[in-house]
User: Fold this.
Amino acid sequence: DSIQRATSGAFTKLTESAHYYLTQNITQSGNGSRLNIGGTSNRGVDILIDLAGYDLTVTNNRVAQVFAHLSVMDCAGGGMMCGATPAADTTASVAFANGGTINIYGGILCSVEGTACPVVSCWSNSLNIYGGEIRGNQASGIPGSVSVGYTGRATIMNMTGGLITGGITDANGGNLFIEKSATANISGGVITCGSAQTYGGN
Assistant:
């Protein structure tokens, strides 16, 4: 796969497998600012984003819509991937997989201040957390950090490392919500400092 520098303004629709690395902080906004990973007709696309110590921020939309495969790493440490959600959309602020797979190896995934939804949602296929940090939000009626599964879908979450923290909700799943049709395999990492008024604070 090709290795490319990620530059502001050209880093949106990713339909061919590639390894991107940041060489500066990137902030994107406006229509078309979201990264679309693959599509309904090209679910074999494999995208690796190396934050390399820099920040990737989308101010008025989620960072990535994942139809294929997205992997996030940070070879330098301290890099952040930060997003929001469009109006009336409560799926996820950073990465939403609906037909795709998300792999997290490093980096800090968080939301633009004031965003009230999960940071990462995986409705199908799998979410694999090997490292990095997911910083949750204060949400209402939905999970604050990570949401796995959707009604009737056999989604899988695997966690062997990393940190999920800070998710607060008045519903179920402060840091982690697992739909009853989904499966969670957690053998490492830390899930802490979450709060839920009903079930599943952490």
Observations:
- The chain has a mean pLDDT of 87.
- The two ends are 38 Å apart (CA to CA).
- DSSP finds no helices and 25 strands in the chain.
- The CA atoms of residues 138 and 168 lie 5 Å apart.
